[in-house]
Amino acid sequence: METPYILKEITEENILVLTINRPKALNAINKGVMDALGEIFSKRQPEHIVGVILQGSGTKAFAAGADIKEFADYEYDQAKALSQKGQRIYDKIEQYHVPVIALVRGFALGGGCELAMACHMRIGDETATFGQPEVKLGVLPGYGGTQRLTQLIGKAKAIEYLLTGNMITAADAHQLGLLNHVVEPEAVFNTCVSLLKKIGRMGPLAVETTIKATMLGPSQEGYDQEAHFFGETFQSDESTEGISAFLEKRKPKFR
Ligand code: DAK
């Protein structure tokens, strides 16, 4: 049987754990990994799944970039198509209906950094190292990196990192808001699980619509979607249960 590009496992807390499975290539994102991501994030998870943890295999890298060996001889049309495909798939992750946390150990570079940034949160240990070194290869980030790095850390710092290709240490990433938390290596997984378990106790529709509106970023569409989703949640049994539970001084039961 062919080795899968992404390993899947479901924990007892109903969390889907996805592991990019190319340890010898530092989990570089080749066509197989990208297609597997596309397939997974095109489908909704069953209702009992509360969230997703996305990680790299081993401890050396989350993902050390797009697979450089695959696109060495690309020309304009192929390169543009590859970039658009990657952008579409990463957008699906960003707009996914349940929270997706990137668990970052080691390198998250280039397309790997862009993948981590497409996730809703990032948790790592002190080995987590981010960077967009594309400029050193004579290209620029093609999977949304110029946009998401700017949204996450601000234009001034983003342009510095994008133009120098400098690595971002875990401490700096935390300070810049790129990493939500930096914890001890043995606590990284459980920190992700605790966050997802907590979110899993909230109303699924409220969680989904909060992700969708927030991830649109500050824009008129973001405001419009927020108002639309706000209306939708008031039509749902979920808000009836949440508000009744508050008034009756009990815990809501959403799932
Ligand atoms: N692609 C392919 N293989 C990679 C890789 C990558 N991005 N990164 C590492 N590997 C492979 C290495 O080639 C090596 O394989 P073997 O030689 O053993 O077969 C293996 O992983 C272990 O790597 P090292 O021996 O280099 O390990 P070190 O600990 O010494 O160094 C490192 C770790 C992360 C500092 C180093 O591997 C490194 O600098 N890697 C490359 C980082 C990088 O530049 N990533 C790519 C960023 S650019 C597009 C055009 C461009 C892009 C996207 C789209 N279109 C055409 C639309 C660019 C995207 C990027 O991600």
Could you characterize the architecture of this molecule?
α1 packs parallel to α2 (76-94), α4 packs across α5 and α8 packs antiparallel against α9 (220-234). By secondary structure, this protein is α/β, with parallel strands linked by helices. The model has no long low-confidence stretch (mean pLDDT 97). It is globular, with a radius of gyration of 19 Å. Helix content is 45%, strand content 15%. The protein folds into two domains: 6-199, 2-enoyl-CoA Hydratase, Chain A, domain 1, CATH 3.90.226.10; 203-247. It has a six-stranded mixed beta sheet, sandwiched between helices. A three-stranded parallel beta sheet has the order 4-6-8. β2, α1 (31-42) and β3 (51-56) form a beta-alpha-beta unit. The protein has ten helices and nine strands. The protein has helices at residues 31-42, 76-94, 111-118, 145-153, 155-164, 170-176, 188-200, 204-215, 220-234, 237-247, and strands at residues 6-10, 15-20, 51-56, 61-63, 100-104, 107-109, 121-124, 129-131, 181-182. It binds 4-(N,N-dimethylamino)cinnamoyl-COA. Residues 25-26, 28, 64-69, 71, 74, 79, 82-83, 107, 109-111, 133-134, 137, 139, 142 line the site of 4-(N,N-dimethylamino)cinnamoyl-COA.
